[in-house]
Amino acid sequence: MRRSAALASVAMLTTLGLAACGGGGGGTSASGSGTGSAAGAAGGTVHVLLTADYSHLDPVRGWDGGVNNFYRLIYRGLTTFGAGKGAEGTKIVPDLATSTGTPSDDNKTWTFTLKDDILFEDGTPITSEAMKFGVERAWDPEAGIGSPYAKLLIDAPKDYKGPYVSGDLDTIETPDAKTIVFHLKKPFADFASALAQPNFVPFPKGTGAAAAFDTKPIASGPYKVESYQRGTKLKLVRNPHWKASSDTVRAAKPDSFEFTFGLDGATIDERMLAGQGADKNAIAGAIQPATVARIQAPQYKDRTLSTYMGCTTYMSLNTTKKPLDDVRVRQAVNYAVDKDSVVAGDGGAVLATKATAIQPPTIVGRADYEAYPFDQAKAKQLFAEAGLSGGFDLTLDVRPVARQQGMAVAIQESLKPLGVNVKINNIDTSTFYEVIGTPARQHDAALTGWCPDWSSGATFLPPLFDGRNIFEKGNSNLAQINDKAINERIDEIAAMTDVDAANAAYGELDKQIMEKAPIVPLLYEKNVTVVGENIAGAYLNDSYSGGIDLVSVGLKDASK
Asked: Exposure pattern of 172-190 as b/e (b: 16+ CB <10 Å)?
C-alpha cells in the first residue's frame, strides 16, 4: 500500500506503491539520465497517462506510491528523499529545513530551523506555525487516514483530534517563526526519515477543512493545481513563488504537467509504443503483461525502464473473521496457494518473482527463508485438523485491474481443490485502500501490498503487524493481528541503537510473524514502463514509489 502502506493504486506510476528501500538495483534510466540528473531543457508540458485517478490530493488523506510521488511536485516538507538514481534517491535530505534536524534528550526531542524565502503559492511565508498546523492535521479523525508516523511518533494526548477539533498540540512547539520543536513519545533516531512522509507538509493555519485540499490544494512546491476534474484531468502549472534557490531536490524543468486519468491500460501501451504527437512528451505506468513481448523490439530499448520495486504483494488474512481466526486455517491457506501460478497471473517472470518472506530482498537485514512451500497435501491436513474438511467461503477484496485480477483468479484456482470457494470482490481503484483500511468494511482477505517508507526494516513490519495500531480508518494492519509476543518484540527492536542489529532482528521477526500466518506473501513485483522519445531525466525511483521520479523528469526539446 504502502496502502500504503498501502500498496499503491494503478494511478501510481507503478502497479505497487510507496517506496522501494535502499539497496535496490536502482533500475535503468532513459533519455540521457544515466546519473539520474534532470537532463533536458526548461519549458514545455509533460503528459502523464494513467488508468485511475490519484487517491487524494490532500496529503493527510493519501498515502500510496503513486500519489506520494505526485505530492513532491506540489508540496514540500522539512525533509524529503533526494533526487537521483539508486542510492541518491534513498537519501534523506533537508527540504524546507536547513538540516535534517538537531536531536536532544536522547533523540526524544527534535529541533528544525526553516530556510529563508520559502512561500506558499499565494506568496504567504511558510512559517513554523504553518508547519505545525500541517502536521497536526494528521490527527483529524476524518482527514488523517494517510501515513501513521505522526501519530505513532509524536507525543499527543490520547483524545487529541487534530487542529479543527482540539486546537493546538502543545508537544509541537514554535518558539519563533523559523523554529519548530517536536517532542516524541520515545527516542527515535531516524525521525528525519519519518518527516519525509507526505503528511508532514505545511498549510496556512485554519485552512483545509471539509476535504478542501482534495480539490484545491495550497502548494508549497514548484507547481500548483490550475484545474482538476476528478477521474478525468489534472493540470499543474508553475508556482510563481517557489524559488529554486531554496530547493536542491526538484529540478522543475517543465512549465506544466497534464495528467489524464481513466484510460484503459492497453490503450496507454498502444499510445506509448506509437509515440505520436503529444505522446512523445508522455510518461505512463507499468505496461500490461500482453505488451511485454513487444517491447523487446530494438526500437524501444532506449525508451524502456525496468527495476524491482522493492515491495511485497501479499494477501492479507483477516484474523477476526471465522475460520481465519484459527492459525491452522491461515497456515493451510499459505501452503495451498501456488505462488508460481500467481506470478503467471501477474504477467510472468519479466514482471515479478515469487515471494517467500514478508520483506522483499531489497530490505537490509532481511532473512532469506520460505515458511510455507507449496504443499496442498499439508494444507488439506491442516484444514482437517481445524474441522474444515468440507471447505469454506472466502471473500477476497481486489482492484479491477488486469494484473490484480490475474493474481486473484490464480488464488481462486489454487484454493478450489481444497473446497475453499473464493469470491472475488472488486473495489474501485481510487477508493480501494480507503475501504480495506476501514476494519468495519473489510472482508475475509485483500490482495494488496506494502513498500517500505524508507531504507529500514522498521517501516515494513511494525506498520503491518503491531496490534496496538489498529485504527478505525486508515488502518494498515489489515490482518488485525494483535499478538503480545510480536508487539513486545517490536518494542525491543525499536529500542536498539545499532541500526544493523535492529535490521537483522527485523529479519528474524519476519519469521516469528509468519508462524502466525497473518498474510500470504505472494510476489515481488517489477516495474517495466516505456517513455516518450522526447522525455528527459526519467529514471525509476527506489525510495518511495518505484515509479518515474516526477521531480526530475522533463523534455529534451521543450519546443516540440
From this structure: bbbeeebebbbbbeeebeb
Instruction: Provide DSSP, 452-511.
Output: -SSSSGGGTHHHHH-TT---SSS---TT----HHHHHHHHHHHT-S-HHHHHHHHHHHHH
Q: Is the dihedral of CA 8, 13, 19, 25 positive or negative?
A: positive
95 pLDDT exceeds 50? yes
Q: Are 194 and 494 in contact (CB under 8 A)?
A: no
Rounded distance, CA 337 to CA 370, Å?
13
At residue 249, the pLDDT reads 96
The gap between the terminal CA atoms of the chain, to the nearest Å, is 37
Distance, CA of 391 to CA of 408 (rounded, Å):
18
Pairing type for strands 392-398 and 282-284 reads unpaired
Per-residue pLDDT of 429-453, as tens digits, reads 989 999 999 999 999 999 999 988 8
CA distance 172 to 12: 32
**What number of other Cβ atoms are within 10 A of residue 151's Cβ?**
17
Whether the Cβ atoms of residue 268 and residue 285 lie closer than 8 Å to each other: yes
The number of residues in the chain equals: 560
Q: Name, in order, each residue with C-beta under 8 angstroms of 114's C-beta and a sequence gap of 6 or more.
A: 96, 97, 98, 126, 127, 128, 131, 177, 178, 179, 180
Q: What is the grid cell recorded at 496?
A: 536498539
Q: List, as one string, the DSSP characters of 51-108.
A: SS--S-SSTTT--SHHHHHHHHHH---SEEE--SSGGGGG-EEESSBSSS-EEETTTT
443, with CB counted inside 10 A (0-12, 13-18, 19+), is middle
Q: Give yes or no for residue 360 having a pLDDT over 80.
A: yes
- Nearest-CA neighbor of 448 among 459, 436, 430? 436
Q: What is the dihedral of CA 101, 105, 107, 111, to 10 degrees?
A: -20
Residue 215's contacts (CB-CB under 8 Å, 6 or more residues apart) are 57, 228, 230
pLDDT average, residue stretch 167-192: 95
